[in-house]
Amino acid sequence: MEEHRPPALQENELREQTQDRLPKVKEAIDRVGVSGLKVALKLRGKSGDESHFLADVDLFIDLETDRKGIHMSRLVESINEIICKDCHDPKESFEQLGIGILTELQKRHNYRRGEINIATTLLLRRFTPVTAKPTDEPYDVAVRVSVDGNVFRKRMTVRAIGSTLCPHSLETTKGKAHVQRAEIELSIETGITENIVFEELIEICEKSFSSPTYTVLKTMDEAAVVEEMFRNPKFVEDVARDCFKQARNLNFRGRLHIRAVSLESIHKHNAVSEIERVFE
Amino acid sequence: MEEHRPPALQENELREQTQDRLPKVKEAIDRVGVSGLKVALKLRGKSGDESHFLADVDLFIDLETDRKGIHMSRLVESINEIICKDCHDPKESFEQLGIGILTELQKRHNYRRGEINIATTLLLRRFTPVTAKPTDEPYDVAVRVSVDGNVFRKRMTVRAIGSTLCPHSLETTKGKAHVQRAEIELSIETGITENIVFEELIEICEKSFSSPTYTVLKTMDEAAVVEEMFRNPKFVEDVARDCFKQARNLNFRGRLHIRAVSLESIHKHNAVSEIERVFE
Amino acid sequence: MEEHRPPALQENELREQTQDRLPKVKEAIDRVGVSGLKVALKLRGKSGDESHFLADVDLFIDLETDRKGIHMSRLVESINEIICKDCHDPKESFEQLGIGILTELQKRHNYRRGEINIATTLLLRRFTPVTAKPTDEPYDVAVRVSVDGNVFRKRMTVRAIGSTLCPHSLETTKGKAHVQRAEIELSIETGITENIVFEELIEICEKSFSSPTYTVLKTMDEAAVVEEMFRNPKFVEDVARDCFKQARNLNFRGRLHIRAVSLESIHKHNAVSEIERVFE
Amino acid sequence: MEEHRPPALQENELREQTQDRLPKVKEAIDRVGVSGLKVALKLRGKSGDESHFLADVDLFIDLETDRKGIHMSRLVESINEIICKDCHDPKESFEQLGIGILTELQKRHNYRRGEINIATTLLLRRFTPVTAKPTDEPYDVAVRVSVDGNVFRKRMTVRAIGSTLCPHSLETTKGKAHVQRAEIELSIETGITENIVFEELIEICEKSFSSPTYTVLKTMDEAAVVEEMFRNPKFVEDVARDCFKQARNLNFRGRLHIRAVSLESIHKHNAVSEIERVFE
Hints:
4 copies of one chain form a homotetramer. Chain A starts with 5 loop residues before the first helix and ends with a strand. Chain A has helices spanning 6-10, 72-83, 94-108, 167-172, 198-208, 219-231, 236-248; strands at residues 29-44, 50-63, 113-127, 134-148, 151-165, 179-191, 211-212, 254-262, 270-279. Chain A is built from 7 helices and 9 strands, in the order H-E-E-H-H-E-E-E-H-E-H-E-H-H-E-E. Chain A has 2 domains: 1-6 and 22-111, Urate Oxidase, CATH 3.10.270; 118-280, Urate Oxidase, CATH 3.10.270.10. The longest helix of chain A has 15 residues, at 94-108. With 280 residues, the first copy, chain A, is α+β, with helices and mostly antiparallel strands. The first copy, chain A, is elongated, with a radius of gyration of 23 Å. In chain A, strands 1, 2, 3, 4, 5, 6, 7, 8 and 9 form a 9-stranded antiparallel sheet that branches. Residues 1-14 of chain A have low confidence and may be disordered. The interface between A and D is large, with 48 and 48 residues. Strand 1 (29-44) of chain B pairs antiparallel with strand 9 (270-279) of chain C.
């Protein structure tokens, strides 16, 4: 792979650099790289329309036993090469961007295992339940693409906000109940070719709450949301289980992680419920 | 005040230091110092019992036009001198600690205006409404003591967590309503001798919510809290106004700031209401 | 202004709503509204090219003494109306977006004082000092547009990251010195028509550090950055003053606030320096 | 274990509760409980002196397939029972507190796997390198005690702040170099009886940096710290490896995780290096 080091050549870095020396402690490093890089990304949907994102990117590679350091600038250069606005056709997905960057990096830096995390916020169009007003709802999402040799994997994570209405309270207080904002983080780690899309994961989360939430709600919409909450009382345990059941139906092979958090309105602390499973 | 610089003497720093030179830009600085210092504090109550706190401390002074820098280490030394466990009797209040530190600093560093912020978490004993279980509830608090010449002032800030139940929703949905966690930040800036205590400010906040919240709640307690919410439906506007009315009754002269935030369970964003007033 | 309430009409909200009742505590509220709204924004530059942003938006209005609550959904509707992708020509600046939203809101909701905060991240093209590699550097920015009656004002805030190299240390240790990451927050509040642009404020900040920082640096670039640091040793006081001097040259009328923070590499806490001035 | 449920009895909760019903989705839950509880803790050292802490506590248990929910209040009650100031002798360590709480919970709630996380800040006495001034340095620490059946394990995590000085920069720029604040998170998961103490882990971290940092530094101390940085240039890779080598010498069986982060002063992003190993 060493033929592919033109940047070093161009910049007169041919001489042995500090990074290439022997380290004092000869121990392999699992993950070394950059974190917290802010980058502008562009994706092109199947219909040809483009979407723009500001993303937080981490990029790590492994480092062998007998080399002091990696060349960090090549990591950032690989990201810039792939995302640069003027020199490529936009990819269709964050996964493809991740694969592109890890592959580009293989031309610039020797490594065996690499990993890129791309975190951003999606805005998805929803319509309010009664007046059908359009509203763009925000969801934090992240994709991690990892490669070991030439085997790629991905982990897709979404975080959605909704509500829980306490079923115990609804029984005890006879029709009254405490409600609160709640969150689900749903994460699936699987092979790179599995067909898992953010929109579907977000929909699964939203259906798992007592009710989804909306950025705009007129009086009649608000009433409908409240009625829906009272029809679907759920413990944070129910939220995690309902999310699990739907996610399981995606029929992927890999690891599933669900974390539901209820920002209890009767407590100052949160209630949490987690399910982790591996499907082979 | 320059006679009081023994630390410099003891440490062979008599020669002119970089800080004492003329700056290139001859402009006074309003506030220069350290922020994010973690310190262990001890207070002694009137009954003689001691309380321990981990606090976040900021300490700033002003800097005159023709001096390049302050001697930052003297700020930290002044804090250490006053809080050190083994060399003093504990103060009765955070304000007294603040006054002590600003006064100690006057012996070590020339300044006209100084300001110390001490932020920590109080745990106050509460009892649940029905089963009367004891429960220690957390409240973030902060005191800022400032001095200009020899006039001291203080600003006391508390943050309390409670709940709001939407009155509009309760009307529209006929007995059902959305509830959510809410917070109030209440802040009073006044003369140093005004009798304002954290416990009273926290109580004012807690009475302003639809209901206070508790760390432990047995079934009957939870039912009582839910009943209280439904008896006291409040917009975030009502919360701020009810807090204002009580705070006004404290009869201080100075500045009052109230910020109520409702973590809406029907939205992903928050609702906020603020009242600011100056009483002369 | 009440003629302009078509949304209420369309949605059968003509009857008196809870919000329109008399409050128990008859006290005006300074600021009530929504915070933490995530919205997608589009701006069109003078050359016609479009830029896309994900922004955090807060929108507040005042509330008179004898009205219980505001109609929060109208705030969000006003934002959506102005930013919606399909129904308008993009504005040229965040200020114009803010003015547009506050003006739209005046058609939908009675208020006297209003305020919108739009916070986002800009990526600006830079070139590394020696190899002239292009690199997109991130800067957090925010604009607050406020209106009182029909007088608009704006506050523009930028946050830039750079470095400080301690001049005292450089003297004492004879050519060696501690360096650290540093930040400047520069904020100017002024009339709406004053010509203040983010790019210029960011440039002022970057010139105030010991050196600016870059996302990519090849070996020779890194050497140049380090040399520049050692040529420009600066206390956090110097950073604030150098920033002040340049900002003053913008010749605006209004309020200037500078906060420089040095993430000290010899301490666990930060060093801070602040300058505030009003220019009439 | 069901004989031990007196709290339910005392509070008239004998009737079947909502939590005890069958869930719709019959799936076990790995972890359900409370997070973000603020509690005041007291430990008694071997010399008999007491230390006080404000801690953030999470407490989780598993939930079987055919039960709708756990009884969350019993989790908080178990914590309160063990930490309450007036009714027990202080434990010697956070681990013992964790064991105590998980054991108390077994009397109140049926579960198989449980886990408690206790996070707080330690202040440790240090002395500055030349003037030997005492200074209390802060370190974030956390212990997780888990139990499966009756087998207890623990994970101890410390986070320490220090500095890195870039060796590559030092070579290229001939005696000059960029320095920055850096952090290490060192975590060891092992059997409950292994003799791992926070103070030792913190010391390992501090020896792994280019230099440790101090809250107070007089001129001569600062010079000594800077000299030490320049004597110990380290990539973030070196920091992780040096930390690894020392941690390995503790000779425990279990899992080791090291994450070193350098807040680069020449970049806006961070450099990160991680080592994970399992020792059987």
